[in-house]
C-alpha cells in the first residue's frame, strides 16, 4: 500500500484552525492513508434514474438500492458518494462506510436540445452537518458543475460557497466538472478538460472528477489526460469510470490514467454496481489494488478473479 502521513497533507487556508485535525482525518480516511481517491460513485440513482440499475446486462441485485451499501461495506473503497437522502436511509445499518454527500443532482430527462444543463443544490450544508453530528460517518461533500452551460455562473457560485463552508467544517470536497451545453462542441476535448480541472482548483476543491479525454490519432486518452492532471495542481484529478466494460480493459485503462495520465485515483460507479455482489466486491478490491497499492493490470485482474488476495489495512478492515 502507498502511505502518507498527516504531515504530508497540504491543508487549504480556508480550513479553520480548529478544523485542521478533522480535515486531516477525513482526507486520510477518504484516501485510505494514500493520498489517492477510490470513489465509489452511487449518485446515478438520481442522475440516470433506473436506467443504470435495471435492464439487459445488469445483475438483478442492482435494482435494490441496498446493493450499493453492501458493496461499499464488503468491498475495498475510499468513499461512497451519494445524495443525502439515500445515505440517510441506510447509513444506520452501514456505519463503517466513509460517506461523501452529493449536494446537487439532476435527472437525464431534459436533453441539451431542450435546455442547457443545470444541477441545483438539493440540501443545505447544515443538514449534512446535522447528520454528521447524529453519527453518520460523513467525510466530505461533492458538487457537479457544467461548464459552458448558460447556468454555469449559478453553479460556480454555489460550488464556491459550498467549498468554503465545507472546508471550514473540516470536510473534503470533490467537484464533478463537465463541459456541457450548447456552447460546448466537444466535451471530450483534452484542452477543455484541462481547463475544467483548473476551474476546480480555483474554486478550492480537493479532488476533481472529469471525463477522460477522447484519444486522437497521435495520442492515447491517458497521454492526453496529463495536461489536465498538471492543470489541476494540488486538486487531485480522478476520471469517471463510464459504462460497464470488460474487467481487464477497465483495469488497464485505470492503470494508464494514473501512471501515464497523472490521475490521483478513480471515480467508478456502473462498472462496479451493475455486477453481482460477489463480483462487484472483487472488482472494488482489484480497483483499489491499482489505485492504492500500484498493482499492475494483470496483478489486479488476479485479485478480481480471486487468484490473489487484497485487503485494506487497519483501521479500515471494516470495509
Quick recap:
With 319 residues, this protein is α/β, with parallel strands linked by helices. It has helices at residues 20-30, 44-47, 66-74, 84-90, 125-133, 152-168, 190-203, 221-231, 247-259, 270-273, 277-293, 297-304; strands at 37-41, 79-83, 99-102, 138-147, 172-179, 207-210, 236-240, 265-268.
Enumerate the strands of the largest sheet in spatial order, edge to edge or round the barrel.
1-2-3-4-5-6-7-8
Q: Largest sheet, described in full?
A: 8 strands, parallel, barrel
Mean pLDDT: 96
In helices, the fraction of residues equals 25-40%
Topology as a string of helices (H) and strands (E): HEHHEHEHEHEHEHEHEHHH
What is the SS-derived class? Answer: alpha/beta
**Number of DSSP E strands:** 8
> In whole angstroms, how far apart are the ends?
16 Å
Please tell me about this protein's structure:
By secondary structure, the protein is α/β, with parallel strands linked by helices. Helix content is 39%, strand content 14%. The chain contains twelve helices and eight strands. Strands 1-2-3-4-5-6-7-8 form an eight-stranded parallel beta barrel, surrounded by seven helices. Helix 5 links the parallel strand 3 and strand 4 (138-147). The protein starts with 19 loop residues before the first helix and ends in a 15-residue tail after the last helix.
Strand-helix topology:
Layout (H helix, E strand, L loop, with lengths): L19 H11 L6 E5 L2 H4 L18 H9 L4 E5 H7 L8 E4 L22 H9 L4 E10 L4 H17 L3 E8 L10 H14 L3 E4 L10 H11 L4 E5 L6 H13 L5 E4 L1 H4 L3 H17 L3 H8 L15
Parallel strand pairs: 1-2, 1-8, 2-3, 3-4, 4-5, 5-6, 6-7, 7-8
Helix pairs in contact: 3-11, 7-8, 8-9, 9-11, 9-12, 11-12
